[in-house]
Write a structure and sequence with these properties.
Blueprint lengths: L2 E8 L6 E9 L2 H14 L8 E5 L3 H9 L13
Antiparallel strand pairs: 1-2, 1-3
């Protein structure tokens, strides 16, 4: 399964995200490098704008990126 690099931007509502497929790589290391290059090219955007995701198809990747995920609970020593 390939790794996809996406540009993810939250729309006006939290439930909707604008997704743009930027690249597809077979190896995580290559996909991570592509995401880093985009982050360097766009220093005005938050780093989490560019994401790498592992999925069978671009459709599956987009479904995973659109899922609402709960923020992790911080342990006392992580604060």
């Amino acid at each position: 399964m390939p790794y996809y690099v996406y540009r993810v931007e939250n729309a006006a509502m939290e439930l909707v995200k604008n997704l743009e497929l930027l690249d597809e790589k077979e190896k995580f290391k290559e996909a991570k490098q592509v995401a880093r290059q985009y982050r360097v090219q766009h220093p005005d955007l938050p780093p989490e704008t560019f994401k790498v995701i592992f999925a069978a198809t671009p459709l599956e990747a987009e479904e995973l990126l659109m899922e609402k995920r709960e923020k992790p609970i911080l342990m006392e020593h992580e604060k």
